[in-house]
Design a protein that fits this description.
Radius of gyration: 25 Å
CATH class of the largest domain: Alpha Beta
Largest sheet: 6 strands, parallel
CATH topology of the largest domain: Rossmann fold
Strand order of the largest sheet: 2-1-3-4-6-5
CATH architecture of the largest domain: 3-Layer(aba) Sandwich
Oligomer: single chain
Number of helices: 19
Length: about 575
């Protein structure tokens, strides 16, 4: 057996033993030994292989698989610029704490810095975005290599999952390979290559004890008005935050990807409530921040309010205090107080005001949107409400996730994911495909994504799936307003910048999305209203499909202003005047 084949077979075997059940490959020659070993593992039913011709799409596909499964996913590229195309997905995984295992094939040391073809500086390519980087030396036929390779994989998986560090994220193994790059038909090696006989990992990594719960946050005489603010977070953490809030009688404001928008204390129209002039009536004494809030400027203003105490829950080792206002950073959710069905330590009148304001704001938002059959927030609201229990919804990181935050009513039974680590729009189609594949492999229901047109265009290659590739049941609902609507809500959209706005921020593209999707054989349905979009999205036909909703980008700033005004008027009318 040649050394490159031996290394590849051992690395892949140990990845499977360590819990990898999905893997992504982009084609290349230098990576051939690893690609062939992954293909053999797929053929043996040990893992499921996905092949993508575009490395950037491959990286985000692996990201989606890992986000939805919470398991490490290897992604393999050949040498050269192929490796650099993984960088956006690595950055998103780094900020979101997603366990990617980046495998980059490389030329051996004697070919580096010599002008050899497809040779670039791959050592430390991803900088401090990876939790571990290791240069895997070019394999040679000598004893001791086998234990080194297996132990290295176990170390990499431990770093990716954060079992020792509480800091999960991407890892990078740069694998130098010499020719020959394909099996030579000789099964012999200088030492046995088998792993542990019971199928377990070479090294079982046992982490430290999970940090104990923080002390209760409702001591006698402490702040009674506590708001639970959930940003982007793993679903289990968001659900635990809901349970804590309900035990304590605290209102909850959750971003869509916080997965805490359920139960009687989940507040609707959160971003609009925080921007309301009547905010002083609702201002908490303390905010318990769970996850990473990233969506709304009023949220950051709340966290910077010197009158409000901020406690941050961060179950990983990553610092989570962007507002630099935290009084305490806690390693886990606090322990609820002893059972108290009457919540004696709570300001009941304040909680009642929150519930009244939330209901008034939601009705105000609905009244505005019900008059606008094709408004983007209405599509978001109606789609979320109509999804079946057990569904997955992936939200684009520009306006769609914000529309869900503003207009989506709290509900149970739907998991929401979004790339809110670095919050880019790149790779979202591939992320949604990967998340849907992992979700449905685990027994989940249909998957949906709500995207803008620029987000679709940014990752149109995510629609390129070969005929032998696993295909998810995934419907992409695309809000097509011929450009970027979010900039119209920012400083760039002010009238004094009108001369430059349309070309460099609005960026109209004029792309025929039906023709684009047709090139990949992806069915597309054009609709013009939210009702038609929901009906098309819920079509029982399985597979990868696109529903295109034509909307008006120029109407977005005016609609947002109208929603803010409607909520302000409704909340003012609903809350009784202070004594």
């Amino acid at each position: 057996m040649n050394p490159s084949t031996a290394l590849a077979e051992v690395l892949v075997d140990e990845l499977v033993r360590g819990g990898c059940r999905e893997a992504v490959v982009s084609p290349g020659s230098r990576s051939a030994p690893l690609a062939m070993a992954l293909h053999a593992a797929d053929a043996a039913g040990r893992l499921r292989l996905h092949v993508r011709i575009d490395e950037r799409s491959a990286g985000f596909l692996a990201l989606g698989l890992a986000k939805a499964s919470a398991a490490p996913v290897p992604v393999l590229t050949t040498s050269g610029t192929a490796t650099a195309n993984l960088h956006p997905a690595v950055l998103e995984a780094a900020e979101a704490g997603v366990p990617l295992v980046v495998l980059t094939a490389d030329r051996p040391p004697e070919l580096r810095a010599t002008g050899a073809n497809q040779t670039v500086g791959q050592l430390g390519l991803f900088g401090d975005a990876v939790r571990l980087f290791h240069e895997v030396g070019a394999p040679v036929a000598e004893r001791g290599q086998h234990a080194y390779w297996r132990a290295l994989v176990c170390r990499a998986l431990a770093a990716a999952t954060g079992v020792l560090t509480r800091d999960p994220g991407p890892v990078h193994l740069n694998v130098a390979l010499r020719e020959p790059l394909v099996p030579d038909g000789d099964p012999t090696w200088v030492e046995p290559l088998a792993g542990r006989p019971d199928g377990t990992p070479w090294t079982r990594v046992v982490g430290p004890p999970v940090p104990g719960p923080a002390p209760t946050l409702v001591p006698a005489g402490g702040p009674r008005r506590t708001l639970v603010l959930v940003g982007d977070a793993p679903a289990a953490l968001g659900e635990a935050a809901v349970r804590l809030a309900e035990a304590c009688g605290w209102p909850v404001l959750s971003e869509p990807s916080g997965n805490a928008r359920s139960g009687p204390l989940a507040m609707a129209a959160g971003a609009l409530l925080l921007a309301d002039p009547a905010w002083d009536r609702l201002r908490p004494d303390r905010v318990l921040v769970v996850g990473r809030p990233t969506l709304a400027r009023p949220v950051q203003a709340l966290l910077q309010d010197p009158r409000v105490r901020v406690d941050v829950v961060t179950p990983t080792a990553r610092w989570a205090d962007a507002a630099r206002s935290a009084a305490r950073v806690l390693p886990a959710l606090p322990t609820p107080p002893p059972a108290d069905p009457h919540h004696a330590g709570l300001d009941a009148e304040w909680l009642a005001d929150w519930r009244t304001a939330s209901a008034a704001a939601a009705h105000a938002v609905d009244a505005v949107l019900d008059e606008l059959p094709a408004a983007e927030p209405r599509v978001a609201r109606d789609l979320l409400a109509a999804l079946p229990a057990g569904a997955l919804l992936v939200a684009g990181s520009s306006m769609p996730v914000r529309d869900l935050f503003v207009a989506g009513r709290p509900r149970t039974g739907v998991r929401v994911l979004a790339n809110r680590g670095a919050a880019g729009i790149d790779g979202t189609v591939s992320t949604a495909v990967g998340a849907a594949l992992a979700w449905q492999a685990a027994g989940g229901g249909p998957a949906f994504a709500l995207l803008g047109d620029l987000t679709l265009l940014h990752d149109a290659n995510g629609l390129v799936l070969g005929p032998d590739e696993p295909r998810p049941d995934l419907t992409l609902v695309v809000l097509d307003n011929d450009g970027g609507a979010i900039f119209g809500l920012l400083e760039q959209g002010a009238p004094e910048h009108a001369a430059s706005f349309e070309r460099v921020f609005g960026t109209p593209h004029g792309v025929d999305l039906a023709a684009l999707c047709g090139a990949t054989g992806t069915p597309l349905t054009r609709v013009s209203t939210a009702a038609e979009a929901v009906a098309a999205a819920l079509d029982p036909r399985a597979g990868l499909r696109v529903v295109q909703v034509r909307t008006d980008r120029r109407a977005v700033p005016g609609l947002q202003a109208r929603l803010r005004a409607a909520v302000a008027a409704a909340v003012t009318a609903a809350l009784p005047a202070p004594a």
